Amino acid sequence: MKKYVFLLPYVVSLLLLAACAKSQSDFVYKELEPSDFQRSLQAQNGMLLDVRTPEEYTKGHLSDALNIDYKNDDFESQLKKLDTTKTYFLYCKGGVRSEKAADLMKELGFKQVYNLDGGIDAWQEEGLPVSKQE
């Protein structure tokens, strides 16, 4: 019996690792080309997040996008206010900040995140619409 007591911590550790692996696999992340991003955004009931600075946002953004600045110190706390079970569509200028934001969202337990590959630059290169309204 004493032999098995020493095995107990290992068994518990394995079970915890398996549980963590399961929760990580529930996360859906996809990088989408601008046309696919637009179609998915229209087809799904998701929230559009622009993670650029407010200055970049006012120069032009996707319609109905919520601006949450990735470079701002309160970025993580702003994300924590969002519903982790909803679908989110992210973009920035070139795709780097939004990819980092998606990584953070994964850590925070978000379930489904789509990233605009190439950011708003790629979107505009394809001639897709941009809004300059607040």
From TrEMBL:
Is Signal there in the keyword field? yes
In terms of domain of life, where is this protein from?
Bacteria
Signal peptide position in this chain? Answer: 1-18
Task: Quote any Pfam family the record assigns.
Answer: Rhodanese
SMART domains membership: RHOD
**Assigned keywords, A-Z:** Signal
On whether Signal is a keyword of this UniProt record, the answer is: yes
Instruction: Tell me which InterPro entries the record gives.
Output: GlpE_sulfurtransferase (IPR050229), Rhodanese-like_dom (IPR001763), Rhodanese-like_dom_sf (IPR036873)
Rhodanese domain location: 42-132
Q: Which SUPFAM superfamilies does the entry link to?
A: Rhodanese/Cell cycle control phosphatase
Q: CDD domains in the record, alphabetically?
A: RHOD
Tell me what this protein is called. Answer: Rhodanese-like domain-containing protein
Q: Provide the species name.
A: Rhodocytophaga rosea
